[in-house]
Amino acid sequence: MVLRRVDILQPLFQRLKRSSEGEIRRGLIYGLPEWQSGSPGVTVAISLLRYVDTETTKLALRSLPYGMHIIGLVEFNRDEEQDLYEAVEQLESPVVFKIVDGKVSASTGLDYLTNLHINIVSSEVFWEKTVTTFHVQGKFLLYSMLETPDLKDSFAQGKARVLNQSSYVLGNKGVVTLLPRHGQILSDKESLKGELRVGDLVKGLGEERVEAYFRPGISLINVTLLFDQTKSNSNKKATLLISDTSARCKFFEHYLSLDYLVMVPNGVPAHRLYKKLNMGFLNQLEFGFHDNILDQLTNSISAEKPEPFHFWPPFASHFVTAIYPEQTSEEKLKEFRHELHELFFVREVRPYFRRSAALFQPMTSLISPHLSLKRKGGILVNGHYEYKHYMQDDFNDDGWGCAYRSLQTIVSWFRLQGFTARPIPSHKEIQECLVSYPLDMGIIRQTYSSPLVVGESR
Questions:
Q1: Is 25 helix (H, G, I), strand (E, B) or coil?
Q2: Strand partners of residue 103
Q3: At 44, phi and psi to the nearest 5?
Q4: Which helix (H) or strand (E) is 139 found in, with range?
Q5: How far apart are CA 282 and CA 296, in angstroms?
Q6: Phi and psi dihedrals of 31, rounded to 5?
Q7: What is the pTM of this model?
Q8: Rounded CA gap, 310 and 134, in Å?
Q9: What is the bridge-based pairing of β-strands 131-145 and 249-265?
Q10: Residue 286 burial by CB count (10 A; 0-12/13-18/19+): exposed, middle or buried?
């Protein structure tokens, strides 16, 4: 199919217009290639990432939802960017974006002489109408000696086990199940039978779509991955990591928490969904867990369980995934978070990728309820927060807890923006700070406290 048009998300288009050679030098464009966009002759540009070598390409693959691929590059000086062209030369129809005096153009074809029409698409329309993101979770038992050949064999067996046995339950109520091997759709709903596209499947799920505070209206579906976890299906060993220091022998056995995102255009035939969910699993297993464990072993004889975290940073307007060793502190992860900032051409003005800022955390409070208010005017708050109020968490603070709840709400904002990893303080913890002041108040005194005093306690 001849490429005729490139759809570009508005945030990326604006970023390219404002860019200069010094700001985004050596950038690759990621998005939906024509063969995956669901629209013949159209490719979709979503994000801009730095290219240094194959290692940054691997980092991009583990950081982006499965379904996003390299589609082209941004050119400033072709003579100095030959390796960028080498990075895209294997693509079927790579796109070259050029920025001259704030104007963006795109071309493809032989020697990139065929101009493409640029169609600007809003993020809201794209994430709500054009694609659906499937959030897949499950457990995966990995067991292996902590040696490269053994790890490779164990991961290979794990891949085969999931590819042959996995089934996927779509939504939280189990309305739709994709059965093993060929992904046959099993459902009691008549509307979910026959020849369907992904958009039809999502529409049939209806209320099963997730209400996401970070991107209202996004088409997001929870998926549970199921397969046989018994060791009898494998000859190999498994997954967290137990140390026998006397024998200098390391054995890794643990249930890894599979948690990955798969982005699928709504126009794709539904029977292809099963394979895409499987490929998303393989992507996280290889570029996420496998590479993370090997990276740990370069500086240690042991390794921690790798854990995925998902983010929606404001500069990207799409999901970003980071995989961190379970027990490693935020301070020790600072260098890796810096690599993510470099990858996305983002200055370190705030910590976007701390665990506390991750999405899909269990929260009992309302998130940013002001967004549902129908009002005109300025922004009430920049970022998200947990709304804390009287009587939450089975704690009776009726008539005296407003200042404490206000402080908890403020601390939640700092957590969700990644500025702190400290937990939200309880009433008792706040009053323990207050007792250091020359005030006559005991722990959990159920009387009103001035918001000024409570605020100063932190």
A1: coil
A2: 100
A3: -120, 125
A4: strand 131-145
A5: 20
A6: 180, -150
A7: 0.84
A8: 13
A9: antiparallel
A10: middle
The CA–CA distances, whole Å, from 370 to 49, 220, 275, 296, 383 equal: 33, 22, 40, 43, 11
CA distance 380 to 220: 26
Structure tokens at 419: 């500025």
Residue 284 has a CB neighbour count (10 Å cut-off) of 26
Single out the residue of 320, 294, 293 nearest to residue 306, CA to CA. 293
Lookup: tokens for 89: 């030369």
Cα(453)–Cα(458) distance, rounded to whole angstroms?
9
Count CB-CB contacts under 10 A for residue 377: 5
- In contact, 133 and 262? CB cutoff 8 Å: yes
**Structure-token match 């600072």, residue found:** 334
24 three-class SS: coil
DSSP tag of 250: E
Q: pLDDT, tens digit, for every residue of 4-56?
A: 899 999 999 998 888 765 667 788 999 999 888 778 889 999 999 999 888 99
Over residues 155-192, the pLDDT tens digits come to 888 888 777 788 999 988 888 899 887 778 888 887 78
The Cα–Cα gap between 302 and 144 comes to 12
- CA 95 to CA 281: how far, in whole Å? 28
